[in-house]
Design goal:
The structure holds 2 protein chains of 2 kinds. In chain A, about 35% of the residues lie in helices and about 20% in strands. By secondary structure, chain A is an alpha+beta fold. The longest helix of chain A is centred in the middle third of the chain and has 18 residues. In chain B, helix 16 links the parallel strand 6 and strand 7. The chains are: A alpha+beta, B alpha/beta. At the A-B interface, helix 2, helix 4 and helix 12 of A face helix 2 and helix 13 of B.
Chain lengths: ~500, ~290
Amino acid sequence: MKNCVVAPDSLQGIPRQQTNTGLWSGEGWGRFLSELKTHDVDVREGRADRSLYQTDGGGVAQGRPHGVVIARSAKQIATILRAAQEHGVPVTTRGGGLTTEGESVAFGGLLLAMNGMSRVRSIDKENLTVRTEAGIYWHALAEVLRRQGLDYLSAPLNLTASVGGTLGVGGIDVNSPKYGCSADQAVALQVVTPTGEIRECSEAENPDLFERVLLGYGQFGVITEATMKIRPYTPCSMHYFYYGSLRTAIEDLQLLANEDAADYCGILTMLDRAVNLLVAFDSDERERQFFSRWRRRLRGHGETGFAARMAAYYALRPWKVKEALYLRERKTALMPQFEPSHHIRKGKIVDRSVVFSRAVWKFWGGQQMVIPDLSTNAEKFVEAVERGNVVCREYFPHYTLYCVGIKLNGWRERYELSCIPPDAEGMAWGCEFEPMIKGATYSRDHLQSFKNAIYDIGVDMNTSYYRFGGMMKGYIRRAFGNELVDKHLALKRKADPAMILNADVIF
Amino acid sequence: MNDYRACTGCGICVLPCPVWQETRDLSLTLAGRALALQGGATALDLRESLEACVTCGACEPVCPEEIDTVGMTLDLRRSVPLDLPELDRGNGEKGSFLPGDSLRRHRLHDVVLQRLGVSSVDGSDISAGIEAGRTVSPDRQRQFLDCLVGAELIVDDGILHRPLRSWGFQVIGLGEALLRKSPELRATDLYVIETRGYHSDFQRLVRFYDELRQRVGCEMNLDLQRAAIATGAASLQGRTGKGGIDAAGQARWILEGRVVERIVVECVDDMEPFQEITDLPVVHLAEVTP
């Protein structure tokens, strides 16, 4: 860890306080409000409006804005940001509010509720793109696209993440091995810069801004509209293969993803010894190809074969009866939720993302959520997951690991300070470590210590961590080193002189 | 079921919400109310939100935390009732069919009675009272319940499904009752489900209507979560023309991207919004039921 200014012993974990931002003093708020009123910007300061945004998906960070504005147009946001620069008022943007480290929680200042801008502007069926306001939920976008027989390429399992928020941090799904992260589906963006200029950007137009804003953690502008790649909608056929070994399942996942043997593949674990490899297909032809060419190379079992093996395993280990009962209960409760009859047509699942999203919230959601994650190159992935698994076991009785590949189309500038590890080529690999904490009570420090322990693995293995909200401010210099962080900090200072836009999220 | 404290802010309930669809303002949705309450807001702070809700109930079956969303909203309204006129008491006639206030006054009322071979009970004041958050006197409630006869009630007014079940009655909607009579439906129809009754018995009815959709091949006013999209016209605000949402705008959203030749509705209140935005024939289910 050369270039790291912190003491070596601090690598074992940082106190939670280091990641908490201070409450903004409120100096300049009155002048800011007065200016916005002259521009007819409706700032809400009532108790109900302020309190409904007081935490995020993580449920750990708690803070309130001085006021809330429902985003309605790029022009309105430009007015707000110009005034915020002048009066030094922090502006926190919030889409679905599904961050887990308080990134979309305002600790004073103004909260900009981006989901006020969530209309689809136009659909280009010929070129397969959609132009949408960026505060739209992925689900709402899917709803509009489905009426036209279309679908987005890839989006987070949490469908109430916003498009704009996702583009700022990554976004992965079980089809990320095929399509890459959600941020890489953006063709063009409309951005309001921190100083209040409305700019269109793409790889051809203002490419520097485009690369800064994508995977930019909301630091370099507010994404107000996005043009995204889309595709024809297809129901998909799904298959599950079961493994007793995490390592074997990961190796098979990597085989499938590298060989493009499936349209969707990912791992969800129930227990260390009950690992589920999901494989799915958009067409009958792809499904047939898989079964003729790849199935026999997989070491996973079908449901019946695996159930027989597990029965034999637990019969010889009666002291593990509780574990066996948990597994059975989990299987019984979970699987029907993933295959409700009203979403099945001719053996295929219709609107998979809706089914998954609700099931994810039902079984993994809660008042508090901690989902630290690691992202590595292919070679480091098994070790990172196995080490993370040991940490999970130390902290929680039950947890799930969610592993996917993330296709990379060459190296892009946007990856530089992001979830994509610098040494990944062709495919990055990500694992979310998701403790099942529903119904249980853990202290904030316990949850923070767990996250630190996972992120310490990333630092130790010189890799990254990914997805939305995963970037802990306290870790960024450890993960990326001073030189790179200082480079981006200088860019941020230049773009946002008063440092008002999503302050304290990563810098 | 759980109360507002169980809300995780996942936002899934927001997606089928017609108020959200129109306003894109989280504070006017169920999630907004639940999160604000968690943050210390009171019913009084939520007046605008409570007035906006059309109680279509779409938020309830999709909620992963199984929150009693409709009950929560109606409970809060008891602290800040909707400022809408009370309706006249029912006439005391007995029967097993409860038409909504609009159907009771509509030319199709007699058609429905004829098709189903039932007589109707007027519970409009009870329904309006519940929806507005007003207290229904025990005497009036007793008088109303005494008018209900038969093993199974056919209830057009979806807001009454839950309370009637809680009072021990077996309840089905008007749509389900008429569908038993084999109406003439076509694959080119848009079939508009009455939302309140549907969402109040979602686990059963989602399969019932899914089977119908597969059998007929028609479109329905369902979203990707299989929640029914409401026009809001049947809400108390919609019927009285005081507040509520733009029903025609909702009808436009339901129709968007759907290629259909006829619109068949279960609830008479839903006829006008569709008639306002399209030249397609809009008929009530009773009109295509033999």
